[in-house]
Amino acid sequence: MLITAIMARDWDNQFANIKRECDLATDMAAAISIIYKGIKSFVQKYESILMDYPGNIIGQFRKHHMTVRQQVTDILNNLLMRLNRREPLPVVSIFAEAVLASSVQEDIDLQALLQFTSKVFPPEVE
Fold first, then answer.
1. 92 burial class (0-12, 13-18, 19+ CB within 10 angstroms)?
2. Which of 3, 18, 72, 101 could cross-link 38 (Cys pair, CB 3.0–4.6 Å)?
3. What does the pLDDT look like over 42-91, one tens digit per residue?
4. In the chain, what are the domain boundaries?
5. How far apart are CA 69 and CA 85, in angstroms?
């Protein structure tokens, strides 16, 4: 299906940009902001197609959900290692799911996600 192929290519490009920017992030809030805005931008770009397309395009992308969550988990794990923080994988995976879900929900804004982030990953005192 041509539409899903185009969207998949665009996601690969978007993800590469997200990853590149997150590789420069110096704290969790910066990385979460980058991820949130990147996913939200992608979803908004294709929102009308997702809503209006008569085929099973949403089903096509649901099967890629785990892949996207793993991509977000990998970014977060890399950042946590750079920050010398060790978190159990389940915590990071569940948090990645929360970031992904928040990015596509209209009722959860970035500030709410950042508040949640500070509870899960409180800034370390030096």
1. buried
2. 18
3. 988 988 776 666 555 555 556 678 899 999 999 999 999 999 888 888 89
4. 2-120
5. 20
CA distances in angstroms from 10 to 43, 83, 91, listed in the order given: 11, 30, 29
In terms of pTM, does the model score above 0.70? yes
**Token reading at 1:** 């299906």
Task: Report residue 80 as tokens.
Answer: 């946590």
Give the span between the Cα atoms of 103 and 13, in whole angstroms: 18
25 vs 1, 18, 57, 65, 94, CA distance in Å? 36, 11, 33, 24, 21
